[in-house]
Specification:
Elements: H1 4-13, E1 17-21, H2 26-37, E2 41-46, H3 53-62, H4 65-68, E3 71-75, H5 81-88, E4 93-96, H6 103-108, H7 110-131, E5 135-141, H8 164-183, E6 187-192, E7 195-196, H9 209-218, E8 224-226, E9 232-233, E10 236-237, H10 238-250, E11 259-263, E12 269-270, H11 271-285, E13 295-297, H12 312-317, H13 326-341
Parallel strand pairs: 1-2, 1-4, 2-3, 4-5, 5-6, 6-11, 7-10, 8-13
Antiparallel strand pairs: 9-12
Helix pairs in contact: 2-3, 2-10, 5-7, 7-8, 9-11, 9-13, 11-13
Length: 342
């Protein structure tokens, strides 16, 4: 099986043309930066509902001018079929990241989540098969496991979705499988588990927990935890997700196609443990920060108590090997947040 290092050398020697949806978002911008550094031709689509132009500017600052010139941006929405058809022309591989996230937000506005996540994914699948696309890689979510209690989560055991967001991701997987069966469109779904890293938005009521807590601690404000703190997650640094997308997009293993994979670290961290990791790491940088304790509150509706991935399937069929543990990722993320907030 081809190693990740070998894959990068191969891509640099034989560039491909890629489409990244949600390119200005947290994960999308990291995919863009990696592909441009590998001298790929990249087309990007974003409506900037979640993505930030500053993310694209930062990528431009981190790559060479000649690499940045290989990037072509289109502002538009995946919910528009004509836009999707336009983006899929002359592209070999799609990395579909565009979506609305957040369980509580989906409960408040399920219509928007259906339009963005379900209709948007359907439009891209339709446009991709129509254009003769080589490969369609899309972001799914650990939320599809719903009320299935088994830990760690294995890809074949799916429960009932507990939120409109979870339902939208499950429907996207169903459509991808249908297009594989009906139109022979090669696809791979990646079930992300609590991805974190630089450029993850710390603002707003629905911000992911790590950037939100880092920002709160730096501002010397109290950190609130939903529940008793024993809720646990499998936190995965964004560079591991970039690796998974690239190997999924280029694998030549026929048994790896038209499958869904857990993309995570394969380790569980409670929210209380996470709080102490963040607080202590920040206080090492700035001892004047208070040694505060978290404030516990009500468990949040729609959330699951525990999440832990079994990543053996991705390791076996894709060759996925996480390169960053949670402590390494947190150090890199906090360096970025401290710098940005300063």
């Amino acid at each position: 099986m081809v190693t990740y290092d070998t894959l990068q050398e191969t891509l640099r020697a034989k560039p491909k043309s890629w489409l990244i949806t949600g390119v200005a978002g947290f994960i999308g911008s990291h995919l863009l930066e990696k592909l441009l550094k590998l001298d790929q031709q990249v087309f990007g689509l974003d409506n900037f509902s979640n993505g930030k132009r500053r993310n694209l500017e930062e990528v431009g600052e981190n790559v060479k001018p000649e690499q940045w010139a290989r990037f072509h941006m289109l502002e538009g929405d995946v919910a528009n079929l004509n836009t999707c058809e336009q983006c899929c022309r002359n592209v070999q591989i799609v990395l579909h990241q565009a979506a609305l996230g957040s369980v509580p937000r989906s409960i408040e506005d399920p219509v928007a989540f259906h339009q963005s996540n379900v209709t948007g994914t359907f439009n891209l699948l339709f446009a991709a098969q129509k254009s003769g696309m080589q490969r369609f890689v899309y972001a799914s979510s650990s939320s599809v496991y719903g009320d299935e209690p088994t830990l760690p989560k294995v890809e074949e055991l799916i429960g009932t979705p507990l939120s409109p967001y979870a339902a939208s991701k499950a429907i996207c997987e169903t459509y991808a499988h249908a297009f594989a069966e009906t139109y022979r469109l090669e696809s791979i779904g990646l079930r992300y588990f609590n991805v974190f890293g630089p450029r993850q938005d710390p603002e707003g009521a629905y911000a992911a927990v790590i950037p939100k807590w880092i920002t709160t601690l730096l501002h010397r404000e109290p950190v609130h935890i939903h529940g008793d703190g024993e809720t646990s997650r499998d936190f995965c640094y964004v560079e591991n997700v970039v690796q998974a997308n690239l190997i999924a997009a280029t694998t030549t293993n026929p048994t790896a196609l038209n499958e869904c994979y857990n993309i995570a670290l394969g380790e569980r961290t409670t929210l209380t443990q996470l709080f102490h990791l963040l607080r202590d790491a920040l206080r090492r940088r700035d001892p004047s920060l208070p040694a505060q304790k978290p404030i516990y509150g009500e468990f949040r509706p729609g959330d699951i108590k525990h999440s832990l991935a079994d990543i053996h399937k991705a390791q076996r069929l894709l060759g996925y090997q996480p390169t960053h543990q949670i402590d390494q990722g947190l150090e890199l993320a906090m360096d970025w947040y401290c710098r940005e907030l300063a």
